[in-house]
Structures are given as C-alpha cells and as structure tokens.
Amino acid sequence: MPVGAIWQALADLVLPASCAGCGGSGLALRHEVCADCARAVESLRAAPIRPDPAPDGLPACVALGGYDGPLRELILAFKERGRHRLARPLGALLAEAVAATADPRRPLLLVYVPDTAAAARARHGDHMRRLALGAAQRLRTAGRQAAVAAPLRALPKADSAHLSSAQRAASAAGAFALRRGAVERARRAAPGSVTVLLDDIVTTGATLAAASVLLESVGMRVDACVALAATRRYLPQRAI
Asked: What is the pTM of this model?
C-alpha cells in the first residue's frame, strides 16, 4: 500500500480552526491539520519497538513513531480534546503501520484495546474503536482483506499515568474481560487471518501483554501489536 499523501487523499472542507498538531491559527487545514504537521506525521515510518524490560506475554510490536511532536498532539487532540474528525487520518496512519506487519496475501483481523465505559462516555465513544474502523476501511480500500473484532471489555481501573512499570503490570493484569459472543464471531469472521492488536500509545507494554495473554487463553493468538506512538522513556532510542 503506498505510503504518504494521506491528508491529500482524504480531501475535505477547509475549516477555520487551529491546527490540532501545532495549534497554529489562520492556516489552511484538512481534517483539522495544517500542511506542515501533515507532512511531519506522514514522514514517519512504522518500525519494531520493544519496551525494556518487556512484560511477559508481549507479542512483537510496531509503532509509527515516538510519542512526541505533532503525532503526540494529534493523538491527544483526538483522544482527550474532542477533535473526532482526526479519526479518519489517524486511522489511515494506523493502517500504514498494520500493513507493514503482515503478509499481504493473508486477511487481517484487527482487535483493539477498548476504553472503559467511563472513558468512552467522556470521549463520546470508544476512541480505539473509531481508529480500528478507520484503519480497516483504509486497508480495504488498498485491496487488503480486513475485519474488526471487539472480543475485549475494559474493566474499571485507576489512572495509570503515574504508576511504575511493576504497578502498571499489576493493574493491567485485571484490566480486561472477554466478550464471549464476540470471540466466537471473530473466529468465524476471519479464518486464517493475521490477528493484530491495536492501541494508540505503547509505554511499558503491560496493557498489550495483558490483553494478548487473555485472548490467547481462548485460542485467539495475537500475531502482532501495532500502535500509533511509543514513549521514549521505556524504549531504546534506535527503535523509534
């Protein structure tokens, strides 16, 4: 699938608002992003990343870039500041990272790390579901077979922003439950597919590891984890 020119390909109305990436005003925007920020994010290329230390059960991981600069601002604008129009370009960027992880001849099953019910209410919908659907649409447009499944349900949990790696792992271990009906539907929907677990940001990898272990316990092996960004605190600089 060709990389780049995502914002140009997703033509939309020019909006009189500040850029979601740099905050600049008076700029021509498409999907709430100015041309400079769009170019900066489109120049990123998906690469393997690995938290250090990596939690047990964490599959191979890929991220589009580091959690900084315009990419960080776009994720925050979409996730926390109500700029939902970013779902389409961010979903397309996520699709580029997914496409780099799997054999193009095999179908893809995209599973996402869900929001808790409280977070979904605050964000007027599950933000990762929006991104997963956008990524699947982009992949299908490029000729790939891609389906989205939601076998995980997020349980209420404490804010992990200030937790240590060990505390994050303990919190993540009980963060999810299975939606049994969705698991069975996913198995039937995409036989022989590559299963990719999606998230927006990788920090310690504890969330992705916990979700992957839970899915594997019911026979859903996660082949790869893909995120938009990875924090540099826990990752070797050469990885991103």
From this structure: 0.85
